[in-house]
Amino acid sequence: MKSFQIKTVMCSALFVVRIMFVAPLAATPHKTFAEPDSAYIFAYSPAKSNGRNGLHIAWSLEGKDWHTIGADHSFVRSDYSRWGQEKRMIDPYLFRANNGLWHCVWTLNERDGAFAHAASQNLIYWTRQSYPLVMEGGNCLMTAIVYDRSSDEHMVSWKNDRNGTNQSFYASTKDFRIYAPAKPFTGNNDAGLRQEVVVAGNTERGTVNKISWTEIDALIKAQQLADYRSIIWGESAATDRERFAGLKPVNATFTPDWANSKTITDMLIGAFFEDINYAADGGIYAELVQNRDFEYAPSDKEGRDPNWNSRKAWSIIGYDATFEIDSVQPVHPNNKHYAVLQISRVGAGLANEGWDGIALQAGEKYDFTVFARTLSGKNGKLMIRLTNADGKKLGEAFTKNISSEWKKYETILVAKETVSNARIEIIPQMVGSVALDMISLFPQKTFQGRKNGLRPDLAQAIADMKPRFVRFPGGCVAHGDGIENMYRWENTIGPLESRKPQRNVWGYHQTAGLGYYEYFLFCEDIGAEPVPIVPAGVPCQNSAHHGHPLGGQQGGIPMHEMDDYVQSILHLIEWANGDAKTVWGKKRAEAGHPAPFNLKYLGVGNEDLITDIFEERFTMIFHAVKAKYPEIEIIGTAGPFIKETTDYVEGWELANVLGIPLMDEHYYQSPGWYIHNQDYYDSYDRSKAKVYLGEYAAHLPGRPNNIETALAEALHLTALERNGDVVHMASYAPLLAKEKFTQWNPDLIYFNNTEVKPTVGYYVQQLFGQNAGDEYITGDVTLSGNREDVRKRVAVSFVRDSKNNDLIVKMVNLLPVAVHATVALQGVRFAGDEAVKTVLTGAPDDRNAKPETSTFTVSENISSDLPPYSFTVLRMKIR
Ligand code: AHR
């Protein structure tokens, strides 16, 4: 037996954690203990959480008194099925194989014929999870593992109680990847394998193993580290008053070290566009008619909204008329539903409310289009009217006579007044029955005057960020909620009536009116590289079950369909880059763009679970694209979380094996995390894949976008610039959110039908985008005092924009006191005396601050007071 002593540690937070741990063993932290060689561990999922809180571990010297490791610490959680309530670990069974590797199997739910498996060397880091479908039509309860020495195989067993049976089964496996078909198991499959013990006053069911004390000690330390991290990462400005009580303004000198400079990316700031929060339909896509195609379906909202169906946003006006939905002989097979209006008295018609009303501007022209045909009665015109809430006419126009064949009719309306809540009325001028579909009203004033284009104010706000690239169509929208819901790019090009609308993963409807062609055009219009993200053959890792035998995310496109899927990705590249004589390039040319779009990047997958199913499909796509289009930079995915998490580790391992050039990382973290992780990329291997930080934002409780979150992001961006030789691109997410239609906060730009409301976080992105450089000059920082918490809240970044020969200094102050900064520029040769200074500052909870710009005279020692909680940018011409 060894002995050990509880050590006091310098950091007070860690000290608190230590005391909490030793309490069961000792009355005082100074006592010396005899360290055992081994002890018992009990692995369980707390009964009270019904499987929603992952694998917990308790330890005991004698197997009688059990001590939990952490108050509610989970060593691994299930990642199966929909986010939140559906991700469950029921009755985990922990088993150590002869080679020392731990295997854990657990029940996923009471419904599915699959169980979960994950393995670990140390119970701290867990490998990818798998969900073998062993009992289609049944379920897998009380899973257990037994080693069969005679066959050198493991038998995973379970009970099935679905379909009126109550029987045990097992499947043999050599590697926990491939399983033999299930066979009946005689008797009770887990008899004697599980135990019930009392942990923290609760009786729990789980497995007991004996392991070395060194291993237990490592588990305890891992949990302590997790606790410690959650304390320091949880630091926020709310406690700055105590943290920095008595702190005087800080003096700082920032000095560029010209001998220590490097070339960095000129692509850092980009825009992440996803149709979330009504960003596209009802948002930037300028269409004013909601549900123009009558394709809204109850399934868009999984049947939860009784008013959400193909009649949504439409109502009948006038008397003696009926409005039905039909699908016989539609305009296009991809657009099955249309309206049938039966009129007995002229004056009745259909009205559309738009999204929260239709915003009109006096004197502006609006293009009205409709597909129509008469089903009975005479041919006649349609009268189109714009009216306000009181029924006052704001515009009127007529189509030509409607014939009995589907045809597109067009007319132009001019708005008489500026209103935010108009509606549009379609009033046939004849009695009888008329079929109507694709009823559209588009302002002629769109961004860059594009037909089927974008709202100019929103598009301009994005353009003003000077994004070097635009990622689209997501996010989760890209890989979809289940295989059927994956975003298939080819369904979003061509005539609008032929595009395939579908359920939006965020619980509404996507018309695909804003499709790949429009995304590429927008990129071209704002000088940004298009970065399309295609699914890696697997849907969103948080997909719902949707009746699929493997739940949503665990399935992939069946392998026999993968060839076609890979072809469709190759077609995308040909569509974007092929000349107009190629099959797909011709489609682009026909749409109005004969010149290639010059696509350079292609994202494959979006923060997917890295499973065998994913890896197999990703690898196929990767090799096929690389073989045919070696010039395209493929972007791989490293999961939704930070370093040390399974998808991150496995995603990067795959990147190293395949030689993926760029890896997409995602993380939404607290301001404290950004403060304590400024060195996140400092140690990245520069010889491996470059990073595309595809989604990030600072999140506080309540999810505001305020000065505190914006400055945390600014701090991180200075660290990204410093690592601009490995971090190639970064995009804050999400970008747009329509007020009252928001599923996710915070976002960068909020809007309603008439206003655009950039956030403070937006201004940070804009200041970095407008002040990008391509050379990083290491900055030397000298601060008065030597407090680490002060040092971590002050950052500087020096970059040079070689095109304009501008030196740009970005300074972040996340302290509640001013920083009297001197920017020491001895030896710098200025071109002109005047330079520009922009400051964004406010109280931490300020959501409305705006940057203010002034000019100043350059000198060798520029004094710049950085106000408390501020971001300052200096820009000067040099020679
Ligand atoms: O940005 C919002 C969502 O966050 C994205 O759709 C998804 O990729 C991530 O989880």
Explain what the structure shows:
With 879 residues, the chain is α+β, with helices and mostly antiparallel strands. It has 4 domains: 5-233, 5 Propeller (Tachylectin-2, Chain A); 242-263 and 776-877, Golgi alpha-mannosidase II (Immunoglobulin-like, Sandwich); 271-279 and 448-770, TIM Barrel; 298-445, Jelly Rolls (Sandwich). It contains 14 helices and 47 strands. The strands form 10 sheets. The chain has a 9-stranded mixed beta sheet with strand order 45-44-47-42-41-40-15-43-46, covered by helices on one side. β13 and β14 form a beta hairpin. α7 crosses α8 (583-591) and α7 (559-577) packs parallel to α9 (612-628). The protein is globular. The structure holds alpha-L-arabinofuranose (AHR). Alpha-L-arabinofuranose is lined by residues 274, 276, 474-476, 606-607, 640, 695, 733-734, 744. Residues 274, 276, 474-476, 606-607, 640, 695, 733-734, 744 line the site of alpha-L-arabinofuranose (AHR).
How many strands, what sense, and barrel or not for the largest sheet? 9 strands, mixed
- Number of distinct helices: 14
The unreliable regions are: 1-29
Structural class: alpha+beta
Please count the beta strands (DSSP E, at least 2 residues each).
47
The whole-number mean of residue pLDDT values reads 94
Q: By CATH's scheme, which homologous superfamily of the largest domain applies?
A: Glycosidases
Radius of gyration: 31 Å
Measured between the Cα atoms of the first and last residue, the distance is 70 Å
Count of discrete structural domains: 4
What small-molecule ligands were found? Answer: alpha-L-arabinofuranose
The percent of residues in helical segments reads 10-25%
